[in-house]
Write a structure and sequence with these properties.
- It is a single chain.
- With 192 residues, the chain is an all-alpha fold.
- It folds into two domains: 3-67; 70-191, no CATH class.
- The chain has nine helices and no strands.
- The protein is flat.
- The chain crosses the membrane at residues 93-111, 118-137, 143-164.
């Protein structure tokens, strides 16, 4: 079988494996592996393992990139709750919004998988932070429905505000990409 045909079969295998769950890919049994090898018998075992490894790496990277986009919400909620606990609701609100604006801008143009691995644990603490916020507001004498409203706004408001804050940076990135494309096209015309 020629090299091009094997490459096409490897790409087809990768598409099929990408549809599986990451956990199923990582814990593939020998029986499952042999089933796949029979369907793609043009590939060697080494080639199959290489494709499987690349798909696992791609899926892991994709999950990290998606999670990276949730970091502004998680970290700003944590800061909002902590500043409310130590200072006041107003200070917490200001600090949370400032951090949200900063992180939304940064996460749209920068991705660091190592930093994400560390910062991803913040997502687990947000629920604890909501509880701390509710407890703090209760201790300060707020009524239950006010507490519920503030916690709901902290949760939903950061998503809505983060989306609104991402619009200008998204427009800037699109304009920049368009300008780069036009400049590249002009460069090609000049070289001819």
């Amino acid at each position: 079988m020629d090299k091009q045909k094997r490459l096409e079969r490897a790409k087809e295998l990768a598409r099929q494996l990408f549809d599986l769950k990451l956990l199923d890919l990582e814990r593939m049994t020998e029986e499952q592996k042999s089933d796949w090898m029979q369907r793609y018998n043009e590939l060697t075992e080494k080639e199959f393992e290489d494709v499987r490894r690349q798909v696992i790496k791609a899926k892991t990277s994709q999950q990290a990139q998606i999670g990276w986009q949730s970091l502004p919400h998680d970290l700003s909620v944590l800061l909002f709750c902590l500043c409310t606990y130590f200072f006041s609701l107003r200070v917490g609100f200001i600090a949370g919004v400032v951090l949200l604006a900063l992180l939304v801008s940064i996460t749209q143009v920068y991705f660091n998988e190592k930093a994400y691995r560390v910062l991803a644990y913040a997502g687990g603490f947000t629920y604890l932070a909501y509880f701390l916020l509710a407890f703090t507001l209760y201790q300060r004498g707020m009524i239950w429905w006010q507490i519920l409203l503030i916690v709901a706004l902290a949760w939903g408001g950061t998503f809505v505000l983060g989306y609104i804050m991402s619009i200008p940076m998204g427009l800037y990135l699109k304009a920049r990409a368009k300008a780069n494309t036009i400049a590249a096209q002009k460069g090609k015309k000049k070289s001819k």
